[in-house]
Amino acid sequence: MSSSEESQMIIMKEFLDEDPAQVEMLRRTLTARRHRRQKTLPEAAGPPEPRAEERSRASMAAAPGAPRDLPPGPSTLRTDFAEFSVRERMREKLKAAKSKAEISLLQEDPSPRPRCLKSVKERKTEVRLDEASDNDKSREMQEEESHLSSKTKFRDSVKKLKQKSTFQNDFPSAEEAYNFFTFSFDPEPENVKARARKRNELNEEEEAEEECVETHEGEEEEEEMDEDVRLVKDDDLFVIGQTAEDFLVMKPADCESYSEQLKKEKEFLFTPSMLAVPASEKIPRNLQPRYLEDEGLYTGERPFVSQSNQNILENRILRQEQGKEWFGDDGRVLALPNPIKQSSTRPPVFLLEEGVAPELETVYQKAIKMTAANQCLVGPGDVQGLFQLDIDISGLIFTHHPCFSREHVLAAKLAQLYDQYLARKQKNLTKLLTDKLHALRNAVQCTIDGGGPGTPVAQQSIPEYKIEIRQTRRLRDAEQEKDRMLLKTIIKVWKQIKSLRDFQQFTNTPMKLYLRKEEVDQRLVEKEYEAEIQAEIHELLEEYMEEYERKMEEYKIELQEWKSWKKAQKSKKKKKKKDVHEEESLEDCDLGEERVKPIPPKMANSLEIEQQVREKADNCRRKPGEPALIPELILSGSITPTELCPRAEVLRREDVKKRSAFIKVLFNSKEVSRTVTRPISSDFRVHFGQIFNLQIFNWPESLKLQIFETMGMSSTTLLAEVFIPVPETTILTGNAPIEEIEFSSNQRVMLDHEGVGSGVSFSFEADGSNKMTLMTSGKVSNSVSWAVGEKGIPLIPPVSQQNTGIPSTLKNTDAIASIGTSGLTDMKKLAKWAAEAKLDPNDPNNAALMQLIMVTTSGEAHVPDFFRLEQLQQEFNFVSDEEFNRSKRFRLLQLRNGEVAEFRNYKQVPLHEREISEKIFQEYDKRLQERDVIDSKNYLDAHRAVVASYLQKVRESVINRFLTAKHHFLLSDLVNEEEMPSLGSEGPGILGLSLFKLAEPKRPLKPRRKERKKVTAQNLSDGDIKLLVNIVRAYDIPVRKQVMSKLHQPSKSSRSFNELFAASPSAQSPADSPDWAFNQVLVRPFVEVSFQRTVCRTTTAEGPNPNWNEELELPFRAPNGDYSTHSLQSVKDEIFINVFDEVLLDAVEDDHERGNGICTRVERRWLGCVKIPFTTVYFQARIDGTFKVNIPPVLLGYSKEKNLGIERGYDSVRNLSEGSYITLFITIEPQLIPGEPVREKFDTQEDEKLLQAAEKYEAECISMFPSRQCLTTVIDLSGKTVFITRYIKPLNPPQELLDAVPNSSQTAAELVARYVALIPFLPDSVSFAGICDLWSTSDQFLYLLAGDEEEHAVLLCNYFLGMGKKAWLIIGNAIPEGPTAYVLTLEQSQYVIWNPSTGCFYGQYDTFCPLQNVYCLISCDNIWFNMQEYDSPVRINFDISRTKHWKSFFSRSLPYPGLHSVQPEELVYQHSDKAAAVELQARIEKILKDKIMEWRPRHLTRWNRYCTSTLRNFLPLLEQNQGKNVEDDHQAELQKQLGDYRVSGFPIHMPFSEVRPLIEAVHSTGVHTIDISNVEFALAVYIHAYPQNILSVWIYVASLVRNR
Amino acid sequence: RLFCKWGLHTGGAWKLLSGLGSGQTQVDDPQVDDVAYWCHPVDVHFATKGLQGWPKLHLQVWHQDGLGRSEVLGYGFCHVPATPGCHALACVTWRPRGTWWERLSQRFVGGGPQLRSPEAVAASAADRFRLRTEAAGTVHLQLGVILRHFGRYGVEC
Q: The complex's ipTM?
C-alpha cells in the first residue's frame, strides 16, 4: 500500500503542471483509489485482482498522457482537439476496461465482486458527471455562481451518492448506462458552444488546481473524507430524486457458506483449546509444583469455576506474553478466596413455622404479680418451675469406728494402702516416666549422631532435651521411691496383722495378703540396672560440669568486680588522706559494704557422683537380685466365730450389732429426707442404696448429708456432716459418677470392750508405747445429679437467675466467644478437640478459637480466668487500665457509690485530680490492710481487742446484709404530700375543729406541746438540725460542806468569794435569819450541756434545788454530713449534762490590794452528770422526764445533806430514794423521722406453727394496744429468728459473787446486778446501725463483753432464776433508753424492778424508777402481754395469774411445747487475771495523766504523789463497798493527810471496755480546766477484776490547791 | 397504668462510677391523657477508656393491670447522645406480637409474649426482623449529658 501511495505522489507531482484533462483523469483515479483504499483496509487478505486491474488501468491512463504532453495553453482548437482526443481515449479506455472487467468479473469469485462493481460504477458515474456538466447549462450556471469550493464538494458528494445509490447495480445496468453514455456522446460536439466550453474549461482548470490541493490534503488527512461520506448522507433525498429507477437492480441475497465462514474465521480468530494444559508449561521451568495446602498453609477456598473453563482460560493466558505471571506456585491460576459467604447476608424468607433463633424466642407469660424480694428460683407463674435433683446414697464405709478392734484398725490401714497401691499401679507412673526417659535419651542420641551439632535446630533442642531428661529422672526417682515405700509399708502392716492375730488368737477380718513373686531373668535385669546407673552417672556428670562452668563464669565476674572494688578502695584511701572531713561518712558506708573475696567453685568428683547414684538406686529401686513382689489382697480369710472369741471381743461384736446408721439429707440446711436406718455390718459397711428425688424450688445453695448413728433403741448421735457440692448443670442422672466423700468426726468415744474407741489413744504394742489416736471417719458413696425429665429435658434451673430488671449482657457474643465465659471447665477438652480436628490455624474463621487454644496450651496448667470479649478494645483505648484505675477521683466516686463506710457520705467530690489528697485513702487502705491484724494498743487488753475485732466483723457482715434492704423506700420517703384540708378532720382542717380553735384562749393555762412537722432526713445539711435541751430544775444537789468554810477561815486570802458575797448582805442586813445566809452558801449550781464538743451552759442558780428552766440550743452535726436515717442512727455521740458548782474565788492574793477593786476567779466544780446517747433522743423524738444525776460516791467538800426545812413538798417522794435528780426536756429541731426497723423475714429454725401463733398473738396484742410493743421472736447473732422464751433459763452466777455474801440473798442479788451492770454497754442500734435488735445468748454476751439492755436483762434474769428467785423479763419503755428490757423479781410479796444496765433496783411504787411503761413479761416458758388500762409500773398489777390483766401466749389452747433453750447448760467463768488487771491499771493511769497534761497545754501540770497514793489506797475500799458509806471516813482521812490543801475531786466508776470512754469521762468532768497557777493534780486508777474478765474501773481525779 | 424498667448497657471499656445502672420507675396511672408521666431521674456517672460500647439505654414498658399483675408492653432502646447538652429523645418501642391464640388469651386473661432474653435482642437489632412485632408507643426521655476530658483524647463532641 505504501508503495502504491508513493507512486501516486510521484505521479501527482508530475501532473501538477499538466493540462486539466489529465488532471481530471488523475483525480478520478485518485478518488477511485482512495475509495478502494477505504474498502481494502478492513479486508486484509483481499483479492489482489482488482487492484492489479486498477493499477494497470491507472498506468494505462497515465501512459498515454505522458507522451502527449502538451504545454498548457488556452487555445480553443487545441482544447477542442484535446477534448475530443480525451473523449476518444476515454471511450476506448472505458471500453477496454469494461471488457476487461467483464472478463474478470466473470472469472472472479463472488467475494471480490462488489469491489469490481464499484470500480465500474465509479467509472460510469464520473463519465456521466462530465456529461451532466456538459449538458446541463443551468447547472453549470449554478456552478459558476456558487463558490468553487462548494462546487467541488458538491460534485464529490454527488459522485459518492451515486456510488451508494447504485451500489446494488448489477453488471448489465452498467452496460446500459454505458450505452446511454455513448449514445448521448455523438450529438454533443455539434451543440456545444465554444465559450461555454471555454468557460467550462476555465472552471475545470480552476477545479483541477483546487482538486490537486485537495488531493494533497486528502492524502494527508484521510479522515476528512470520512467526514464527507457522512455529510453526504443528509443529502440522500435529492439524490434519490435525481436518480432514476434505472439504478435499482434486483440482486439475489448473497450468503457465505458456514464452512467458508469458519475457514475465514480461522484465519483471524484464535480459539483456545479446552484441553488441560500440562503443568510444566504453567510454572517456570525446573520447578516442581508446590501445593501450599499440603504444606499446611492456609489457602482460601477457590470460587467454583468449571474445569473446562479453567482450561480455556489457562490456554488463553499461556498464549500471551508473560502469561506465566498468572499462575501460582501450584500451577493453578491465581485466585482470591471465595468471596461468597457461606451464610447468606440476606436472611431467608421468614416463615412463622420456622424455628426462631433462641434469643428471639418469645414466651407467653401470664401477667405476674411483683414480689419485692424474689428469692425463689422462678417466678410463681413460670411454666418451667420444676427442677429435680437426684441424690443417690449408696452406702457408707467406716474407715474408723469406735467399735473397731485393733485388727480392724490394721485391716483398714492395709486396705487403704492396698487401694493406694492399686491406684498407683493403674497409673503406673514409674513405668511411664522410665519410658519417657528412655525416649528422651534416644532422642538426644539421635540428634547428636544424625544431625550433628551443625544444624541450629538440633543445637537448640539438645539442651532442652537435657533439661527434660533431668526433670524426668528426678520425677521417676521420686515415684520409684514412693512405690517402694508403699510396698514396704504394706508388708509391714500385713506382718502386724499376722502377729496380732497370733496374739489374740482370733481373726476379725477376712483380709489376706499374698505376695506373689515375679520371676525375672537375672542377668538381663542386672545388665539393665547397670546400664541405667551408668547413664545416670554420665548425665549427672554433665550436669555438674555445666553447673561448674556456670559457676566459674560467675566467679570470674565476681572476681573482676572484687578487684575493681579493691582498686577503688585503694584510691579512696588515698583521697581520704587528702580531705579529712569526708572521712567519717565514707568510712561508714565502706564498712557497710566490705566485700568478701569470692571463692572459686569446686569441681565435681565423678567418684562421688557414682557413689551418690548407687546409693539412690539402692534406696528406691529393686536390687537386681531381688524378685519383683506383687501384693494381692484377698477377702477370703475366715473370721473366727463369736463363740470362740474371748469375752471382750464378744461384747464388741454385740455392740456392733446394736449399732445402726442413717443419713439425713439437708437441702439449704433444711432436712428434706433421710435414709432408712440400717445396721452396721461386722465389716463396718452400711448399705443404703437409696435415691432421693428432690424437686426443688429454691436455688440450691448447699447440700448436706448428716450421718447419724443410733445405739440400740435410744440415743442418736450425729457423727458427721458432709457437704456435697451442688452438681454442675452438665451432670445429669444418667452419667453421674458415684463419688466417695470422706468424713470424720471429732467425737470422743470410749468403750469398755475390745473396740478401740475414737479420739482415744491406744497402742498395738503390749507395753503401751507407740500410741495412736484415731477419729471416727469413713466414706459416703453418693452421687448427685440433675434429673432428666420425660422428654429428656434436664430439669436444671437456668444458670443465671437474676432478679434485677435488666441484667447486663454477656450473651450477645457468638458461641465460641462464650466458651471462655461459660465456665472454663472444658478448656482443655476444647484444645484437645482442636488438636484432633486439625483446625487450620490460618483460617480466619478459626482465629478466635485458635487464639483461645494458644492461650490455654501455652500456659499449660494455667487456665485464664477471663476471656477477652472485645479483642480490639485495647487498641482503641484512650488510657491504660492502670492509669484508669489510678484516678483518685474515680476511686473516690466509686467508693462513695459503694457506700464504703469512710466515704459513704462524702459530699462534693472535687472536680480535679489534684484537689484530692492522698490522705483520704490512707485511712481506708490502712483499714483494709489491718482488717485481720488485731491492734491491742487501743484496747489495752488482748481479749477485748479480739472481741472488738470480732464485733467489727459481725457488724460489717450484718451491715452488708442490710445495705440492700435499706434501699427500699416507702411512699412517704419519696412523696411529700400535704394533707388535703377537709371538713371536720383532725389536724389542719380549715372548717373542722380549727373553727373551735378560734375560740380558744390565746394563752392557755396549760399549754400543750404541738406536734411538729416531721422532716425526712434527706434534704438536710449541716446546721439545720439543732438539739434543744430544756433544763427545768434539779433536786437535791449536793451542798458544800461546812468543813470548807471552817477550813478557809484561817487563811483569809483564799476565801471563797461566795462566802464573802454571802457575808456582805448579811453584813448589810444582819437582822435576817442566819438560816437564809446559811442556805445561800450551800451551792451555786449550773448545768453545762456538752454535745459533740460544743458546750452550752445555763445561768447559775442557787441552792440545792435550783430551778433554771432554760432552753439550750446545740447544733448537731451528722458524721460526714450525711443525714440519712442510716447514719443518724449510728451517731455514737452522747449528750453530757454536767452539773457544776460555781465557786467564786478571790484572785487577789495580797491583802493590801483588796481595796483597789474586786478581782475574783470563777471556779467550777463538777458535781455530777447525766449521759444520754443521741440515738435515744433520735428514736424517742423527745425525752421528757426526771433523771437521776450520776453523782460520784465521794465528792470531796460536798455532802448530800437534806435540808428538810425548805421544800417539804417533795419529801414524800424523795425519801424513798437518795441521790440528786434533774428534770430535762430534750428534743431535736426539726423533728427527724426515726428509721423504721427493717421489715424483713429471717430464716428460722422455729416450728412453723409456733411462728404463726406468735404472729397472730402479736397482731392481736397490737390491735388492742397499738402503742405497746409485743415481742415474741427476736433475732440472734447469726440473723435467725428465735422465739424469745428460749433466752430465759436459770444460769449460775459466778460463784465468787455468791461466796462473797453467803448469808444475805439481798446483797448477793445486788452484787450480781452490779456484776451484770459492769459489763460494758453497747447499744445494738449503734453497732448494727438502725438495723434491728440482735439478741445474743448469755455466753456470747459474756464472751463479747458488750451488749444491749436486752442482753444485760436476760443475763440478770437468768442469774436471778439461777439464784432461786422468781424473775421475769420486762419489755417496756424507760427513760432515757427508750424501748428496753428490765428485770422484775418478786421478793417477799413485793415486786422489785431492776435496771440491768446500771444495777439499780426500784420498788414497784418508786416514782423515780426510769421504767415508764410495761408492755409484756417474759419468763422461761411464757409471754404475758399487759392488758391493763395503764402501763406505768406504779399503776399496774404484776400478778400474771390474772388472765384479765395479762394475756398469756401459751395457754390451754396452745400448750407450751417445751422449747429447749438456746442458752448453754452452764456458764463457765474464767478466773480473772489479777496481774493483767494491775498492768492495765498502770497503763490507764499513765494514759490519763498524759491526756490531762495534753488538755492543759499552756500550764504546767504538777502531780501530787502523796495525794495520789492516798487516793490509790482508798479506791479498793470504794470498790468493796460499792461506793457507799465511806464518804465520811474518807473525807476525814484525806483532810488529815492533806491538811493544808484544798482538795476537790471525785472518783469515777465505769465498766471497762475501751480507753476512750474513760478519757471522755475524765474530760467531761472538767478537772483540767482549773487554771490556778499553783494547782496540783492527783489521779489514781484502780481496776477490780471480776470473773470472766469483767473489769470495774475506778478513776479518782482530784485537784489540790495549797492553802496558804 | 404503666411503668418502665430501664437499664444502661455499655461496652467493656466503661466503668460505672456511681449511680445505678438499671432501675424501674414508679407506676403511673394516667387519668387525663394517653400519656404516663414518670419523671424518673436517672443519675449515672461513667468513666471510660474507649469509645466502644457507648452506653445504650434499654427500656421496657410494663403495664400493671387492675389486679396488680404486670405484663410487658414494649421494648425499646436508644443510644445515649454523644454530644454534651440536654437532649430530648423519643425512643420508639415495640413488642412481640404473638400467635392469634396468644393474642386472644392476652386480651382476656392478660399477660403476653415476652422475650426470653430481652437484652440480647435489644442489644443487636440485626436479628430482630425475624420477630413479628407491633409498635408500642414512644418513651420520651430528656437526658442531660456532660462529657469531660474527651477532647484530651482527641474526641470531639
A: 0.71
